[in-house]
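Run log // design_07
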């Protein structure tokens, strides 16, 4: 998280769980070819978009929170990378709607859907475990305060909506494309 290999972590750390662009770059390189498109409909502070820029891919990212999109743009500028396409909005609705996403993708299909979902209301709850052991702040760190944010939904409400989002994303995926989902261990 420090130095040149941090990929502007000092900017992106406003997000509770920024993904490491180096790891994302490697995943993107494995599943796609140069100039293909990657879709991340839970973009956060843009780890996927930065990863795509690092390996000459195009990317489209969607997030509910403008401050995360702004942090991505600031980090991207600091890194001197080509800015990828971003959209503020409810990705669940945008996946269903189709018009906006088709426009963002320029009517192309993505070769890879790469997402790190919010895992239900885990971050909206008070922290336990390590935070308490290390006498750190145990306050909740929700992504947004919006009711439509999957990060504020109880797990039983989260799973069916998340599953539907995967199904809905498939219409934007080219034949023989891939979907990669980062998933946290959801045990209490």
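design_07 sequence
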């Amino acid at each position: 998280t420090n130095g040149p290999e941090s990929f502007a972590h000092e900017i992106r750390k406003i997000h509770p769980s920024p993904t490491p662009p180096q790891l994302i770059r490697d995943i993107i390189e494995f599943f796609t070819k140069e100039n293909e498109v990657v879709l991340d409909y839970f973009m956060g502070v843009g780890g996927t978009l930065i990863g795509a820029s690092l390996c000459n891919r195009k990317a489209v990212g969607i997030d509910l929170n403008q401050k995360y999109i702004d942090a991505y743009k600031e980090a991207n500028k600091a890194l001197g990378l080509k800015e990828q396409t971003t959209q503020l909005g409810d990705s669940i609705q945008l996946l269903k709607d189709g018009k906006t996403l088709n426009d963002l993708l320029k009517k192309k299909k993505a070769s890879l859907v790469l997402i790190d979902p919010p895992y239900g209301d885990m971050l909206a709850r008070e922290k336990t475990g390590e935070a308490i052991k290390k006498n750190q702040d145990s306050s909740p760190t929700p992504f947004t305060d919006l009711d439509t944010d999957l990060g504020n939904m109880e797990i039983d409400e989260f799973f069916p909506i998340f599953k539907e989002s995967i199904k809905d994303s498939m219409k934007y995926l080219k034949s023989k494309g891939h979907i990669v989902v980062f998933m946290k261990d959801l045990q209490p």
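Residues 110 and 173 are 5 Å apart (CA to CA).
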